[in-house]
Recover the amino acids of this structure.
């Protein structure tokens, strides 16, 4: 009962935010990363404007290193929901996690690419699926998070958020990032996916997959581009993913959870935080905050 | 049962707030192993917590910069899942005095305040400030936690004294209150009852959060639905928004607050378009109306009763503002007022006083600075329908936004509409000079600069315009060149043509003044009669005649356009000062020395504008 009520409240709050974005900005866009949070976001956006259509396009930043299953799922979803899907890849050639390191690769293929796509299309508001419970430094993020010209995040210029209403006005060159799922927890996301029967990428569920071990993390060998050491053979293990991103930078966890109920049960016992699976966040010792200042989501 | 409880956590620095929240998080399964591990490994400077033990205060830390300084400077949001399934959203507001703004943000949505009192320090000024801000923001109840009882040997009388003080302070603010003894350090009475407090048989903090229910308080029932978005589909036009104030049902009568038009709710749709037979406050809905009524984003749908009883359109309101910007409040400056989904220009006409949150006293003031709280009167540029804040927080609140930087400069709680702003008949509002001036936040005026060619009129006019523009004022410079190249290109320099030139410029100036602009005219306009005719087109006080007085020899030696040279050579007849007379003004409003510095001239003109 309480669980349902909590989900209803979170759903209503997110829809309120989505409608504000649609009503107040000139050219909003929904950032679609194909992961579970994005799937929830898309679902909420279809519900928010039903029986009308979602009044903004959907943008995917394709780094070219996503899991193949993610891309297939993305294209299926776009067809199923009749989305106005835009895909952008940074035209810069030859930048890979293996040649440039996780941090630099992410900066170029994700952060830069995102800025390019936002600038080229003149999007003034980008809706994202980030949550405050993902990481400590996110606990202070606003629902409407202002970006200065050049997409810079300035802690000092963040606007106070009173009541249910945001100041949606933008000065020259400013843009807004909007996070309707700010108050959701990881568990809320899964419970909502279950309640609403929202399709998600099968990688979230356990299956035998080819993995190698790198610095204590299990990395799935998703295609032939993965540089194996001489003589190295991927081992088949029953694994799943808690978050999805670029496959060489996303750690798998060993798990037997093959469906959503089992995932939820497992999560209640698992005491590790979600971002532990994102290798990029650990690099350099600092939090995602410094990356955010550069414009990483 | 309330499924989601919103809590504002307040306390002064070092009262143990972070530790307390960290305890709650860790003991309700809200902290992950890696976070606990981090809190076990990391120590702040000066920490006395033994190695290997968890420093619970570290579980709630956020931004790197704050981390280094060891202080919390922004509102952090944390989530607790209580055993009953209730979700608690904790807004953790900083304790520093200078951050009234953040505290107010955290309190603006809170149902309950958890207020820390350090048993070793007692009830202090800060405690009163926190209660005062919570009361102001409409937080109905407070749970006070008297912390660090371990440091006073679990002394019952210390607790009783402090509890008494807190309860009477809360009562003074009309808040319901309870007080709980605790020691956050080891978690005594936070989640589980403590053997150190045998004399206490009340709830733990967790129990109190589980048991909290809203008090029944009388309130004007009736839904408010600010329209966020109009949803269109085949044969469908629905108005989407979130319900506030009271439940809404299909068949309910609807009044559109701005226009007063009425209809009934035909269909009530929940998220995803499912038909509902009732939607409570907080629900995101879409409604269709039985009649074809004009409704758009920014409109407010409500019941005719609510509309008749206080929510009718007005253009003047009394409100309490929390100033949130570094730049102080400017009288007469036009701001954007955002109320729900509606945005209108507004001017603060009067500052009635500043509230000292510690003493509760009002002081007279002319302006408001960052973190000041004051009572003001506002005039909006067009009627808006605002609730009283005490009736409904989400439809009785507003933001003021700077029109250029778009920064939020203030958050406001509406007290009431002012009588003079009531009974505005919708749609009869006319856009006239007054309205345009108000929108621009300035008074329109003409500065008519006359003087010999080369006297420096254009230079001074341009410098003045730059100055005024940088002050956020709306200006326009008309000078001989930009007018003669187009509008007056059929005119020459005979006395008759000069008169017509001046007449047309004066008429154009009149239009620009009506548009609300500050117009700077830089025109030789050598004849007194022509200037008198020009002045006659304006209201007294709107027109200032300024003589840019520069000796003819100086003008001739400057000769920026080579006119004097041509006149001397005989190729330019009718040149003022050379074949045609210049008649200096007899009673100019200002004489500017055209041989002095441009800055001085600009200063003098600015002073003239201020009169
Ligand atoms: N003796 C004692 N010290 C405490 C207690 N709670 C917190 N402290 C200490 O008080 C200091 C400030 O605590 P912290 O939680 O960071 O306070 P905040 O500034 O209010 O967040 C730290 O040194 C804590 O260890 C308590 O219940 N008893």
């Amino acid at each position: 009962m309480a669980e349902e009520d909590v989900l209803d409240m979170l759903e209503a709050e997110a829809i309120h935010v989505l409608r504000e974005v649609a009503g107040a900005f000139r050219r909003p866009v929904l950032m679609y990363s194909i992961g579970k949070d994005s799937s929830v976001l898309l679902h909420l956006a279809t519900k928010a404007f039903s029986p009308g259509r979602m009044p903004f396009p959907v943008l995917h930043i394709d780094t070219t290193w996503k899991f193949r299953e993610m891309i297939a799922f993305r294209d299926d979803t776009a067809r199923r929901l009749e989305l106005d899907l835009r895909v952008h890849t940074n035209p810069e050639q030859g930048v890979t996690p293996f040649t440039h390191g996780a941090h630099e690769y992410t900066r170029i293929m994700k952060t830069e690419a995102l800025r390019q796509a936002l600038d080229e299309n003149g999007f003034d508001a980008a809706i994202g699926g980030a949550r405050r419970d993902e990481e400590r430094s996110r606990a202070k993020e606003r629902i409407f998070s202002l970006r200065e010209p050049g997409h810079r995040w300035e802690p000092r210029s963040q606007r106070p958020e009173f009541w249910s209403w945001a100041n949606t006005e933008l000065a020259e060159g400013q843009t807004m990032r909007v996070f309707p799922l700010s108050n959701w927890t990881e568990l809320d996301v899964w419970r909502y996916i279950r309640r609403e029967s929202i399709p998600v990428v099968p990688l979230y569920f356990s299956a035998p997959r080819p993995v190698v071990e790198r610095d204590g993390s299990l990395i799935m060998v998703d295609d032939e581009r993965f540089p194996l050491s001489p003589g190295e053979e991927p081992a088949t293990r029953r694994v799943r993913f808690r978050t999805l991103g670029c496959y060489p930078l996303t750690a798998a966890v060993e798990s037997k959870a093959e469906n959503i109920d089992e995932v939820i049960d497992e999560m209640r016992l698992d005491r590790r935080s979600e971002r532990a699976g994102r290798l990029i966040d650990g690099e350099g010792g600092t939090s995602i905050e410094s990356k955010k200042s550069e414009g990483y989501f | 049962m309330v499924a989601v409880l919103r809590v504002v956590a307040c306390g002064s620095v070092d009262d143990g707030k972070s530790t307390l929240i960290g305890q709650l998080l860790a003991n309700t399964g809200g902290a992950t192993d890696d976070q606990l591990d981090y809190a076990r490994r990391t120590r702040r400077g000066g920490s006395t917590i033994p190695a290997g033990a968890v420093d619970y205060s570290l579980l709630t830390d956020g931004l790197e910069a704050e981390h280094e300084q060891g202080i919390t400077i922004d509102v952090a949001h944390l989530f607790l899942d209580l055993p009953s399934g209730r979700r608690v959203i904790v807004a953790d507001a900083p304790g520093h005095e200078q951050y009234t703004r953040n505290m107010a943000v955290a309190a603006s949505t809170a149902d309950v305040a958890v207020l820390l009192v350090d048993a070793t320090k007692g009830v202090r000024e800060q405690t009163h400030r926190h209660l005062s801000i919570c009361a102001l923001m409409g937080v109905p109840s407070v749970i006070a936690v008297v912390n660090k009882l371990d440091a006073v040997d679990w002394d019952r009388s210390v607790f009783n004294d402090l509890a008494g003080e807190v309860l009477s302070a809360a009562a003074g603010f009309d808040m319901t209150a309870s007080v709980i003894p605790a020691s956050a350090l080891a978690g005594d009475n936070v989640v589980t009852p403590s053997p150190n407090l045998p004399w206490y048989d009340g709830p733990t903090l967790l129990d109190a959060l589980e048991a909290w229910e809203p008090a029944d308080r009388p309130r004007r029932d009736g839904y408010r639905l600010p329209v966020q978005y109009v949803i269109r589909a085949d044969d469908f036009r629905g108005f989407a928004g979130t319900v506030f104030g009271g439940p809404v049902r299909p068949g309910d009568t609807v009044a559109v607050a701005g226009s007063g038009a009425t209809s009934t709710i035909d269909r009530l749709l929940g998220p995803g378009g499912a038909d509902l037979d009732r939607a409570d406050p907080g629900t995101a809905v879409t409604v269709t109306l039985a009649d074809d009524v004009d409704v758009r984003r920014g409109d407010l749908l409500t019941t005719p009763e609510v509309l008749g009883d206080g929510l009718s359109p007005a253009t003047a309101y009394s409100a309490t503002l929390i100033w949130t910007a570094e730049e102080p409040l400017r009288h007469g400056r036009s701001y954007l007022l955002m109320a729900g989904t509606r945005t209108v220009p507004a001017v603060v006409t009067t500052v009635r006083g500043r509230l000292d949150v510690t003493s509760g006293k009002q002081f007279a003031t002319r302006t408001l600075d960052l973190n000041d709280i004051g009572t003001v009167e506002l005039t909006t540029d067009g009627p808006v329908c605002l609730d009283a804040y005490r009736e409904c927080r989400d439809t009785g609140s507003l933001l003021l936004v700077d029109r250029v930087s778009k920064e939020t400069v203030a958050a406001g709680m509406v007290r009431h509409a002012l009588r003079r702003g009531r009974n505005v008949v919708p749609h009869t509002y006319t856009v006239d000079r007054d309205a345009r001036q108000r929108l621009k936040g300035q008074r329109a005026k003409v500065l008519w600069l006359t003087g010999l060619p080369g006297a420096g009129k254009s230079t001074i006019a341009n410098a003045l315009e730059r100055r005024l523009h940088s002050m956020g004022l709306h200006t326009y410079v008309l000078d001989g060149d930009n007018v003669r190249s187009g509008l007056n290109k059929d005119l020459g320099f005979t006395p008759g043509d000069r008169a017509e030139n001046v007449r047309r410029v004066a008429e154009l100036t009149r239009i620009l003044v009506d548009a609300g602009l500050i117009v700077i005219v830089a025109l030789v306009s050598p004849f007194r009669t022509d200037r008198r005719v020009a002045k006659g087109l304006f209201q007294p006080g709107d027109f200032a005649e300024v003589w840019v007085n520069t000796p003819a020899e100086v003008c001739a030696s400057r000769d920026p356009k080579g006119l004097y040279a041509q006149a001397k050579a005989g190729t330019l007849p009718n040149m003022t000062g050379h074949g045609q007379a210049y008649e200096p003004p007899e009673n100019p409003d200002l004489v500017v020395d055209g041989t002095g510095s441009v800055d001085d001239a600009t200063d003098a003109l600015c002073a003239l504008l201020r009169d």
Summary: Residues B 11, 13-19, 49, 57, 147-148, 150-151, 183-185 surround guanosine-5'-diphosphate (CB under 6 Å). Chain A touches chain B through 60 residues (CB under 8 Å). The two ends of chain A are 34 Å apart (CA to CA). Chain A has a mean pLDDT of 90.
